[in-house]
Amino acid sequence: MKKLISSTVAMLVMLAFSFNSSAQDVAVQNGPKITFTKEVHDYGEVKHGADGHCTFTFKNTGNEPLVLGKVKGSCSCTVPEWPKDPIAPGETGELKVKYNTNNPGAINKSVTINSNAVNTPVKVIRIKGNVLPKPTSGAPVNSTGAPVK
To answer: Which has fewest Cβ within 10 Å: 25, 71, 96, 120?
Structure first.
């Protein structure tokens, strides 16, 4: 009889922990969630001074409004623009990034997004590519200082 009672108590304790764990899982799932269609934008090869804009589309896959707070580029050459109004559940938004293509060389920058999303309150997206050198003018170069004829 003691074995039956102790095994019943053990099963009730396990059931209680199991129920508590499931209740916590459901609570964690409530709230806004941010889901991006892409997390990296590859410019590829970009001409010097070309248009450095790109767009990241995201969706609020949660059940409460999503609010983007501080959004910051990794340097002053990477400037983000984001929606200031809340994004309703099921709605999409766009985060626009402008990279200064007057800087020749490799692009490997990031944008950090702080939001009220329960799945990723701090999200990092990236841009990459290569800005080609500034083209030369094709005019003759005279390093002696004498006028070019």
So the answer is: 25
CA angle 63, 64, 66 (to 5 degrees): 120
The answer to whether residues 82 and 71 touch, using CB atoms and an 8 Å cutoff, is: yes
Structure tokens at 42: 């590859």
Which candidate, 61, 127, 55, places its Cα nearest to that of 92? 61
For the question of whether the overall pTM of this predicted structure is more than 0.90, the answer is no
pLDDT, tens only, 75-129: 999 999 999 999 999 999 999 999 999 999 999 999 999 999 999 999 999 999 9
To which CATH superfamily is domain 34-131 assigned? Immunoglobulins (2.60.40.10)
Best CA proximity match to 31, nearest among 115, 113, 114: 115
